[in-house]
Amino acid sequence: MDVDYRLAFEMAPVGMIVSRNRSMVDCNRHVCEMFGYSRELLLGQSFLMLYPSADEYERLGAHMAPILNAKGLYSDSRIMKRANGELFWCHVSGRALNRDTPHASGIWSFEDLSSQRPVRAELTGREREVSARLLEGLTSKEIGKALGISHRTVEIYRARLMRKYGASTAADLVHKLLAG
To answer: How confident is the model at residue 146 (pLDDT cuts 50, 70, 90)?
Structure first.
């Protein structure tokens, strides 16, 4: 049986992007629908346009590179930005085609989590990063290590998140983050 790989790419149940040096070389229709851009507007562009801020784009790129280099794979849930400016939770998974140069080329999948996890509170970029890691079940020390900040700084961000979400405990915060 002959497989039409282009059709499989287009019809995949998740958004898919082929990248080169953190720019989009190809994408499927699902990505266009999810982010609200036409294919023509995405191709050749930096992934930066899909992030809430340039700061988050830079920090996540720096965070991903050693993981891609070591494992060849990377996966997380993070807040991304649609063309209309709306922020939404998205599960992102990727594979470097060459682990020695992890950003040189890769294949990435994007799954919109907004129906299960709406973004309701106005969060800073760092608060979004801390909340994403809290949802992964990481401790303040583990989050601090992953983000290159002290665990005390993580605790300050966690306290801010608890105030913004009206949470009384860390477990309550995680529950409210999951519920939006």
So the answer is: confident
